[in-house]
Amino acid sequence: MIDKLNVKFIQGKIAEGKPRKFADGGGLSLVINKSGSIHWRLSYRFDDKQKTLTLGSYPKMTLAQARNKRNDIKADIRKGKDPIKKKKEKILFKNVAKDWYNTNADDWTPKHAHNVWKSLEDNIFNHIGNKAIDKIEALELIEILKIIESRGALEQLKKVRVRCNHIFIFAKVHGFIKSNPCEGIETVLKSPTPKNYNSIQLKDLPELVKDINTFDGEPTTKAGLEIALHTFLRTNEIRFLKWDNINFDEKLIIIDKEFMKMKREHIVPMSNKVINTLKDLQAITGQFDYIFASSHKPQKPFSENAMLYALYRLGWHGRMTVHGFRHLASTTLRELGYASHVVEKQLSHESKNKIEATYNKAEYLADRIKMMNDWSTFIENANGKIIPIHSKKAKN
């Protein structure tokens, strides 16, 4: 019997936290290790020898994808092809990079996907593209990246280094390498100067609020600006919001970790203003998956620059960016008396060193609910005047 497993069963066993192995049939098994890593394993016979092949990690490789991979491999075996030998033929850096790219490209915009691949073609493949990935060492990689550094292209250097790191992590998860030569090499490379995102001063808030309220462009863009101002989410966190992420009963937005910079699920308490904005928008895009669906291609969200260009159109070019809403909220909320750890939690500024198992997306939620409602009230009161921010101290 094959196809024994189902997603509900798998999630239940993962929640138990016990190292186990569960057979799906046809040689395919899901293995939960003591370390907490979970991967798909295929057992098969070839030339009268029992062999084992790691297919990929779960949930990155879904149950359906693992079954398809098993069926493809079984078809190769029937043709006399050993999948392990086939796998070894694919461990050139460029081939692994292509597999990594294909795995992630659907989650990227076409422009970003193009830029990712081109950056590797221009800077990496001509050096190590045709080299076995398990033979690439840290010093060799540093020498290659130093070429980018010597051009003074430090932003590009960081992007290429991070992409190489993701490729090597992908390779390690799939069993192509035992260690990641890219790990830690940022310590010997120059870093780009941090970007300063344009942000207004508090005295400019009434003018900005009025301008957003009178914006006569796409209703999704106007709503996006309102949500950015009231929730101080990042551009892509807003763009990729789906109606499934909204819990009107609990007054919460729950953002999937795939769309968060820190790759952790994030909770955003909704004020009445945010709820009303979303309910008004529901009449326009409620039939689509994305809240901020493109008017031209509603199966996709609006463009990554839609809100920024709207600010330009409103006369805020060089004065305000979407990211500037985060800076404005971060600064003002502290001045309003909110504790830094509550503000940082709502900004999703979690430390990368924090142990994943102890992460709590609902931490300080009561304080955050009050803070987000106070913030919306503060913004709404700014529609014409600024109430002195120290006139009402928030409770910690």
Layout: helices, strands, pairs:
Blueprint: H1 7-16, E1 20-25, E2 28-32, E3 38-46, E4 49-57, H2 63-78, H3 83-89, H4 93-104, H5 110-123, H6 125-128, H7 138-150, H8 154-173, H9 205-213, H10 219-231, H11 235-239, E5 246-247, E6 252-255, E7 266-269, H12 272-285, H13 306-313, H14 322-335, H15 340-346, H16 365-381
Antiparallel strand pairs: 1-2, 2-3, 3-4, 5-6, 6-7
Order of neighbouring strands in the sheet with most strands: 1-2-3-4
Radius of gyration: 25 Å
Q: Uncertain segments of ≥5 residues (pLDDT<50)?
A: 351-359, 388-396
Distance linking N and C termini = 58 Å
How many strands in all? 7
Please give the CATH class of the largest domain. Mainly Alpha
Q: Which overall shape is indicated by the principal axes computed on the Cα atoms?
A: globular
For the sheet with most strands, the description reads: 4 strands, antiparallel
Beta-strand percent range: 5-15%
**CATH architecture title of the largest domain:** Orthogonal Bundle
| Count of separate DSSP helical elements | 16
CATH topology of the largest domain: hpI Integrase, Chain A
Q: Structural class of the helix and strand makeup?
A: alpha+beta
What does this protein look like?
This protein is of the alpha+beta class and 396 residues long. The chain folds into 3 domains: 7-89, Double Stranded RNA Binding Domain (2-Layer Sandwich), CATH 3.30.160.390; 93-188, DNA polymerase, domain 1 (Orthogonal Bundle); 202-381, Orthogonal Bundle (hpI Integrase, Chain A). The protein has 16 helices and 7 strands. It has a 4-stranded antiparallel sheet, covered by helices on one side. Strands 5-6-7 form a 3-stranded antiparallel sheet. It is globular. Mean pLDDT is 86; it is low at 351-359 and 388-396.
